[in-house]
Structure formats: C-alpha cells, structure tokens
C-alpha cells in the first residue's frame, strides 16, 4: 500500500487513506490527484510526486477505501482492468464526493494550505466535474471523464474554473456524449473543454500502452498553466 496518511471523514466515522507528497518549501497551493479505476497505483503516485516537485502539496486519496483499501491495479492486465471496473460499478459517487470535501477541508485546516485544485483521470475525471459542481474547490481538471453528459443538469452550480480534456475517439464516451458536453458547457464562462482528435481514453496515463506521449505532454502543460493561474 502506497498511502502514507489518513484523513478523517466529514462525519468522523472513518479515515480516508491517502498518499501525500510534500514540496521542498512552503506550498504554493495544493493539488488533489484523483485516481482512475486502478487505485493509488504507481502512475498516480508519479503524478502526485510531479506536483510536489512543482511546489504544490499533492494529495491522492484512496477513492475505493470504503470497498477495499489499498487497491493497486495494472491497466495493461485484462483481469486487473476488469477488477477495477467492478470497483467503479459499486462506488457510491455521492458519498465519495463527501470524502473529497473532507480532503479539501483537511488541506485547508490541518495542512494550512488555502488554495486547492483537483485533477482526476477517467473515473476521477467525473469526480473532478462533481467537485466543481458540489464543493468549493478552487479549480478542477478532468481527463477523459466518463458520464459527465449525464450530470449536465448540475452545471449551473459551477462557480470556479473547470478544465476538461476530451479525446474524440474515447471508447467510453460516445460522440453523442461529447456533443452533449460541448452543448451543455461551452457557453459556461467557468468551463474550458479541449478536444484531442483521434485519441482514446487513458492517453495521459503515466505507464502502459494507453499513453500517447505527445498528447499527454500537451494536456499536462495546459493543466499546469491552468493551476498556476487559479491555484498558485
């Protein structure tokens, strides 16, 4: 298990395991890193460490802790991929966003970092959208979020900046779903969508066959500039 910290839930009925990476000096802000369906695995740890190297406090909570703490899966192994799908299907997203809110509160209160951004991948991309509609996080970024088109009725609640990376050949997000996202969000002054032509789901994964290095670097640069503007 790669987590090294626990964060109390809002109601105090449990503790959320998390991997925390600290910058060398005073944090310029904090970035919450939300996993794919594969847990806080080496790819997510690498992303958190990269944010810490850029001067942010990075926190990667174990989203599946209520089901099974310490899930770490490899997306390139079909059996483990399917195992991750199973966890996602059973995940309570409404309860999970309360856990994200608890992490935001912990960062501001206990870690004493006022500005908080959140970046999520795959399932975490949906959570990034939900964080923008249901929490007071300062900025959110979603990579290839699945199911956002089913939650556009919440878009009126977006009060802070939201950036979404959308690969146009995403096998989990249909062209119709992508069109609905654009139709529902392009007119929102808080929201920016970037399309990545011909790319599939998972193109910014740190490890494995899904990664497209050129596109990942472009998306990550846009994300870094976005957080520099809105978080610090």
Key features?
232 residues; alpha/beta; Rossmann fold; eight-stranded mixed beta sheet; globular
CATH class: Alpha Beta
Q: N-to-C terminal Cα separation, in Å?
A: 30 Å
Overall pLDDT confidence: 96
Percent of residues in helices comes to 25-40%
**Structural Rg:** 16 Å
Low-confidence stretches: none
CATH T-level topology: Rossmann fold
Strand content: 15-25%
Strand order of the largest sheet: 1-2-4-3-5-6-7-8
| Total discrete domains | 1
CATH-defined superfamily: Alpha/Beta hydrolase fold, catalytic domain
Quantity of strands, as a count = 8
CATH architecture: 3-Layer(aba) Sandwich
Tally of individual helices: 6
The 3D shape can be described as: globular
Order of helices and strands: EEEHEHHEHEEHEH
Largest sheet: 8 strands, mixed
Specify the structural class.
alpha/beta
